[in-house]
Amino acid sequence: MVKIIEREKARVLRSQGKSMNQIVEETGFTKSSVSLWTRDIVLTLEQRNRISKRGRSVESIERRRLSRLNNMKLKRREIVGVAKKDFTNLSSRELKIIGTMIYWGEGGKTGNWSVRIANSDPTIIKVMMKFFREICKVPEEKFHAHIHTFDNADIKKTEAYWSRVSAIPRKQFYKTYVKQSKASLQKRKTLPYGTMDIYVHNTVLFLTIMGWIEKISELLLGEDCSKIGV
């Protein structure tokens, strides 16, 4: 009975001069079913011309949309390319400032006085590992990692991913924390590997970075910033 009603609805719409795609869009029926149900209906010349005109119009709109998107993409890349010319290289001093500023914004500044920073962006993790290795001279065996991810994640794949990003051996990873996710599917898709925490249990290094943050604050603001969190 249901199929008969669907068939009749499709035939009515086709008789009105609707295209196959229009009927599918309006009803949700499959295109193959619509084609089968309406194959004996002959459209008038006016109806065929109208469908043809609409098809050309849709195609034209889609071409313009794709062209506009491509032009926007090219324009953005042009702006990015011009901006990249502002830098030709980075010195160790600049890396020190960059790492310190990232830690100021993202790193742990309270607790057990261990150096720790968490992020979901692999580029940030790579930059901070470069900072720790080249500026802070942290020995490789002092690095530890802790992954936070969702309950639908492949744990081994996730740990292997962050190990590649950070170049920290998996044997130096703490047990991965799996959160029973209440996040939306979209959020889980945008964070397929969760977040990574880098740990260096070294009080002297922690206090040193805090000192760098304080000094940068003083140089920028011209005031005593000795109560950042230490």
Overview of the molecule:
- The model has no long low-confidence stretch (mean pLDDT 87).
- The longest helix has 40 residues.
- Helices cover 59% and strands 10% of the residues.
- A 4-stranded mixed beta sheet has the order 1-4-2-3.
- With 230 residues, the protein is of the alpha+beta class.
- The protein has 2 domains: 63 residues, no CATH class; 130 residues, 60s Ribosomal Protein L30, Chain: A (2-Layer Sandwich), CATH 3.30.1330.
- The protein contains 9 helices and 4 strands; from the N terminus they run αααααβαβαβαβα.
- Total discrete domains: 2
Percent range for β-strand residues: 5-15%
Task: Report the top-level CATH class of the largest domain.
Answer: Alpha Beta
**CATH topology annotation of the largest domain:** 60s Ribosomal Protein L30, Chain: A
Average residue pLDDT:
87
Report helical residue fraction: 55-70%
Low-pLDDT segments: none
Structural class: alpha+beta
Amino-to-carboxy terminus distance: 75 Å
How would you characterize the largest beta sheet? 4 strands, mixed
Radius of gyration: 30 Å
